[in-house]
From TrEMBL:
SUPFAM superfamilies the record matches: Clavaminate synthase-like (SSF51197)
Organism, as annotated: Streptomyces antnestii
Protein name: Oxygenase
Low complexity composition bias: residue spans: 8-24
Gene Ontology biological-process annotations: antibiotic biosynthetic process
Length: 404
């Protein structure tokens, strides 16, 4: 029996739409039919599972993006910069703002620095950059409990991502996410396995990072310390520049109206009951960039954004389908970094099977942001962590720079 609205693939593996083979999440495949084990899913899985299955044509990922691969000389240069950065005084939040750290970042290997600056100033339509050959230092066993912080701010991987983020504007953090950490550890947690979280291991559908916040990171960075056992986990990325042409004019117009709202993500609302999760004011999903940075920008989270009327919801679902049609899947290995333009790209994660044995997938996540941050949106003056009271104060942190 098919979920309501789903289409069984035609012979040969193609979907009825002709856009490629339909590939439902592995957990939803049972004896040749597509069903949903409601008893094993939380409420959001029961609600979103059928909707995702019904609306999505999972096309084959597009061709891999050509990576920037560092050579041994580049790696040695980075290691020296990291050792020097580790000697700078103060916590990382203040170190980032020092002239000494800025000078170190200006001496990143030439190919890496120029590559990141080019990605910042003229992002490709796919909105993705992949870097290989990065030094990540000695890596202990992958943690298993939520909130573990076993590496610290002076670990080579922490300083590496801070250096790479600097030409993109520098790191920011959020007081109400991971206690304001500037570098996040992403690894599977057994109790979160089925949740739409970075600590989960089930399918995590497309989303803008921190969709609910008025000061969203301009970019998202993911540094791989350790891949998953089966090399199955993939970061899925899809660009609005490639997906928007697949939409009708009517849908493009609808998506530009303030007929959408977004619930605060679970990562910002741990400990809150579902009905206590805040919801944003109405906002568009698509919008034009500021003067000097033309082109469409995107803002949605398929687990948390919803249309305020049926027409708006249907347009959102068709956008997500278009994103799946054009998406790319990247499976990172140790020492590989993904940089994503969070203004034009949504991202997600495929499902994978963790073993919780100390050797599971482990990424370091970070948020670059180029805009000015004034004292009224910060936890500490002169810092880089946004206060949990900063919501609604959009005038001081809005991303309006042409090169942002």
């Amino acid at each position: 029996m098919l979920p309501h609205g789903a289409v069984r693939p035609a012979a040969g593996g193609s979907s009825a739409s002709g856009r490629g083979p339909f590939r439902p999440p592995r957990a939803c495949v049972r004896s040749g039919s597509w069903t949903f084990p409601d008893s094993q899913l939380p409420w959001w899985g029961r609600v979103l599972g059928p909707r995702i299955m019904a609306m999505t044509t999972y096309a084959q990922p597009r061709t891999e993006v050509a990576p920037l691969t560092l050579d041994a000389r580049d790696t040695a240069s980075l290691e020296e910069l990291i050792r020097t950065a580790a000697q700078l005084p103060g916590p990382l939040e203040h170190t980032l703002m020092s002239d000494a750290f800025a000078t170190l970042a200006e001496h990143l290997p030439t190919r890496l620095l120029e590559g990141v600056e080019s990605f910042r100033d003229t992002p490709p339509d796919h909105g993705l950059m992949v870097v290989r050959g990065l030094p990540v230092g000695d890596i202990p066993a992958t943690p298993g409990a939520y909130g573990s912080n076993v590496l610290g701010e002076t670990h080579p991987s922490s300083l590496l991502v801070a250096l790479v983020a600097h030409p993109l504007g520098g790191l920011i953090g959020y007081e109400d996410e991971k206690s304001g950490a500037l570098v996040h550890d992403v690894y599977p947690v057994a109790s979160d396995a089925a949740k739409p979280l970075n600590s989960g291991s089930s399918l995590f559908d497309f989303h803008t990072e921190n969709v609910h916040h008025p000061v969203r990171p301009s970019h998202l960075g993911l540094l791989c310390l350790r891949p998953d056992h089966d090399r199955r986990a993939a970061t899925m990325v899809a660009s609005v520049r490639e997906a928007e042409p697949l939409l009708s004019a009517a849908d493009r117009e609808t998506l530009r109206t303030d007929r959408y709202r977004s619930r605060f993500p679970l990562s910002f609302t741990r400990g809150l009951a579902e009905d206590a999760r805040p919801v944003t004011e109405p906002h568009p999903v698509l919008a034009d960039g500021p003067a000097g940075a033309p082109g469409t920008r995107v803002r949605f989270n398929m687990h948390n954004t919803f249309g305020t009327d049926p027409e708006a919801q249907q347009a959102l679902e068709r956008l997500n389908e278009a994103m799946h049609t054009v998406h790319r899947a990247v499976r990172a290995d140790r020492g590989e970094m993904l940089l994503v333009d969070n203004r034009i790209v949504v991202h997600g994660r495929s499902d994978f099977t963790p073993r919780y044995d100390g050797a599971d997938r482990w990424l370091r996540r970070f948020y670059p942001y180029p805009g000015e941050l004034t004292a009224d949106v910060l936890v500490r003056a002169g810092g880089r962590v946004l206060s949990k009271d900063s919501y609604g104060r959009t005038g001081t942190g809005e991303d309006t720079r042409a090169d942002a």
